[in-house]
Amino acid sequence: MLRELGSTGIEISSLAWGMWRTTDTGQRLEDVDQLLHAVLDSGINLVDTADIYGFDGTSGFGSAEELLGQVLAGSPGLRNRIVLATKGGIRPGCPYDQSPVYLKEAIDASLRRLRIDHIDIYQIHRLDILAHPQETARVLEDGLASGRIRALGVSNHTPSQIEALAGFLDTPLTVTQPEISALRIDCFENGELDQAIGMDLTPLAWSPLGGGRLFNPQDEREIAVAGALESFARDRGVSLPVAAYSWLMAHPAGIVPIIGSQHADRIEDAALALEVEWSRGEWYEVCAAARGTPLP
Length: 296
Ligand code: NAP
Known about the structure:
This protein is of the alpha/beta class. Helices cover about 40% and strands about 15% of the residues. The chain is built from eleven helices and ten strands. It has an eight-stranded parallel barrel, surrounded by four helices. Strands 1-2 form a two-stranded antiparallel ribbon. The protein starts with a strand and ends in a 5-residue tail after the last helix. NADP nicotinamide-adenine-dinucleotide phosphate binds next to β10.
């Protein structure tokens, strides 16, 4: 059920749970504690957060990390049961900052809010075009050398941006986190997933249900995608999310969907995705709907 992340020695589950919406839904400490236990009980050990999660446009920067830190501090032993991924580099008002001084401070601030001594996976959230990748690499390598970070990742980076950063790192990147869902398959054909396979990067799929749009498709293409997934789900007796996650997981890049739901029963249901297999015919039917044009 667990697999190694690159050659880091870190063992991760095939599904992750994300905390982007945790503060939106007004979750309190006890709720997050319960959710985190539901996540672990479902066999999921990878938890994705970010320093920006909780920011509402004016305040709340760091609040999702803060909440997770309080939960971890209140449950001894919990920290060692999860692989904790966080992100930095989006800075309100900037909007992106990977200057060496800021990035180092951002890593330290995440550690303080999370009340932990190391981050398992630190990801650059969105590229700061003004940051030279050599400087970003130096800060990340310092984080690894000091033991404050165990593994590195990026999010929302193009293949060439990943290549540029990797070229200045001594330690391989292990994670890339693009948006991937049956509603958003750009990375199937733009080289991102081919690169992930070639570089042994684990792709973490953000918004694997299109941020919930699969339940409320907006146009003809989205209606066709939701319909194709629903038809598969009905045939197999599983839920629409399970069909959507397992469709992504069938890709050879080893995509790890990040579950966004803040409901324990939906997280438990998601774990069924591990048991679902797709035939090529079934898979390509959804793929054709997702492309919106017939397959060549
Ligand atoms: P998602 O799974 O695509 O969407 C989750 C939304 O769907 C929630 O509002 C959820 O509501 C809703 N939903 C309705 N019915 C559901 C059902 N039966 N099962 C599951 N969900 C259902 O994911 P997301 O929240 O947009 O994103 C997931 C994670 O990706 C985030 O938490 C974050 O870690 C990561 N992310 C990263 C970036 C980035 O730039 N790197 C950007 C966005 C997100 P309920 O909570 O009511 O179930």
